[in-house]
Amino acid sequence: MINICDYRGHIRNWRGLCYELGIDNTLSREEREKAIIVKAYEKWGREMADHFYGMFAFALYDSDKDKYFCLRDQFGTKPFYYYITSDNRLLCGTNISKIIDQDGFVKELNVDMLQIYMTLTYVAGEDTFFKGVMKLMPGHWLEFENGKLTVERYWTPTFKPDESKSLEDWADEIHTTLTNIFPEVKDDDEVAESFLSGGVDSSYVLAMSDAKRADSCGYDEERFDESRVAAKTAELLNVEHSVANIQPKDFFDIVPFVMYNMEQPLGDASAIVFTLGCKATAEHTKLCYSGEGADEFFGGYNMYRNAERYGDNLKTFYVGNTNIMKEEEKQKILKHYDPNVLPINLVKYIYDETEGLDPLTKMSDVDIQIWLEGDIYLNVDKMSTACGLEIRMPLTDRRIFDIASRMPSKYKVNEEQNKVAFRTAAAKVLPEEIAFRKKLGFIVPVRIWLADERYNADVRDKFNSDMAAQFFNIDEINAIYKDYIGGNSDNWRKVWTIYTFLVWYEEYFVKR
């Protein structure tokens, strides 16, 4: 008999799967998705994910064979972890906290991960901050039978540029595909709202959706605040608009909640704002759309426009969207430094896979395989769940990626613009000033707030704590902080990354 031990996700093409697998499509969502997973495993086994569209991670147990089968979706939108005990038992699931609480788990810090974290600001690759707890990576399955663990990759992003199509052809294909996907994103009896920033991704999702209300975050600091632009988009699309005004005290107060529920430290300051946004949105809905995925698929980051000038040098330094601290600086601040633990080692296999492709494709593939999984999708899943909100991401779909994988880079970025074809598609339902608005990113005024003594007391305390002294040379990290206070605002990311690690460590190794 096959039982589902753990499951997180949303299967989009459930109607077709119910028909093909002989499942009653009038079942509740929970019942039908569990039935789909079991029946799909019985029919297709390890190849079952090839038949799914959506977001999913799960563990199955076959009691007849005493065998576990675990699977994570192609992009890693849902987390999954596993741990082998000293007596060779498998502990696994979508939450590290559930693994920690089981018999046989030995809690020990993986100190090497701190060295990676200080560069990337997130936990990349298979390892975690808990020694022995491994991530099942995107596009992988796991089997555990007769005491033997097998982990294999079932899906790899591949890129085969097609030069035969025009810009309009690509825009038409994006728009048509998204039009076909949207009816699958939610059931007819569900009501969803949509997150909305000032950017094209969330605006396009809102315009294509049936959402009647949009939700944004805003700040008193006008130069950081995109909610005013979002309000104009919402008015144009004739939807209600809610704004969660983020105050610095609320921002700092919720950091322990975020680090605890994230289960891994995350130095992305936007995660704190996102959490506050989720809390506010969950007061009036339990389901929300969000626009993640398009930047990495279609060349959305401004740095991608510099890809050609990097050339083959990429493989010596590009480890993804964030790279905040050089090795020499880490040697100075860390008590334990291993010269063999280098972030670039995490992405060598990606450069091998993309050998012969253009630099932009290489950069975006690194971000698709490392950054999205380790930062963006982890944040979306963990924080929405912690706040009682479910988020679905229509742009993160194999059918959307398939278009991006065939699209030549010249239709992704040029000297003036990023996401060229994607923006052209969005312009079919949005005014050009919105579709082609310059990308700002999800910016946060934390670079200002960290220097304000009204809010940074806990930061200063932790930088001078016995806890920090276990890992850092106190004088060195305080020198970084002093330099930041003195006007080097670029140092705020380093300060924040150190601080978030210390908050997380306190939650899991001091309080627990």
TrEMBL record:
Residues under site feature: Important for beta-aspartyl-AMP intermediate formation: E292
Keyword check for Methyltransferase: no
GO-annotated biological processes: asparagine biosynthetic process
Tell me which InterPro entries the record gives.
Asn_synth_AEB (IPR006426), Asn_synthase (IPR001962), ASN_synthetase/amidase (IPR051786), GATase_2_dom (IPR017932), Ntn_hydrolases_N (IPR029055), Rossmann-like_a/b/a_fold (IPR014729)
Q: Please write the reaction equations for the catalytic activity of this protein.
A: L-aspartate + L-glutamine + ATP + H2O = L-asparagine + L-glutamate + AMP + diphosphate + H(+)
Task: Write out the GO MF terms.
Answer: asparagine synthase (glutamine-hydrolyzing) activity; ATP binding
Q: Which residues form the Glutamine amidotransferase type-2 domain?
A: 1-147
Q: Hey, which pathway is this one from?
A: Amino-acid biosynthesis; L-asparagine biosynthesis; L-asparagine from L-aspartate (L-Gln route): step 1/1
- The yes or no answer to whether the keyword Amino-acid biosynthesis is present is yes
Catalytic class of the enzyme: ligase
Keywords attached to this Swiss-Prot or TrEMBL record, sorted alphabetically, are:
Amino-acid biosynthesis, Asparagine biosynthesis, ATP-binding, Nucleotide-binding
Look up the EC number in the record and give it: 6.3.5.4
Q: Which Pfam families match?
A: Asn_synthase, GATase_7
Gene Ontology cellular component terms for the protein in this record: cytosol
Q: Which PANTHER family match?
A: ASPARAGINE SYNTHETASE (PTHR43284:SF1), ASPARAGINE SYNTHETASE (GLUTAMINE-HYDROLYZING) (PTHR43284)
Membership in a protein family: Belongs to the asparagine synthetase family.
Q: State the name under which the record lists this protein.
A: asparagine synthase (glutamine-hydrolyzing)
Q: What species was this sequence derived from?
A: Ruminococcus flavefaciens 007c
Taxonomic lineage: Bacteria, Bacillati, Bacillota, Clostridia, Eubacteriales
